[in-house]
Specification:
The chain is mainly alpha-helical and 50 residues long. Helix content is 72%, strand content 0%. The protein starts with 7 loop residues before the first helix and ends with a helix.
Length: 50
Amino acid sequence: MANHSEVAYTTADGNDYEAHEQTYEGFIKLVKYGTSAVIVLVILMAIFLV
């Protein structure tokens, strides 16, 4: 059996929490603006394609 005494992410070098937060904030902005764009597109389709 393998020895599983250490968890890899706690001992890994180079964990950059600030970069993780920036990536997450960018993802949230992308989802927010993407959702808004789709809503506007659907509204415009409802107005001009009826």
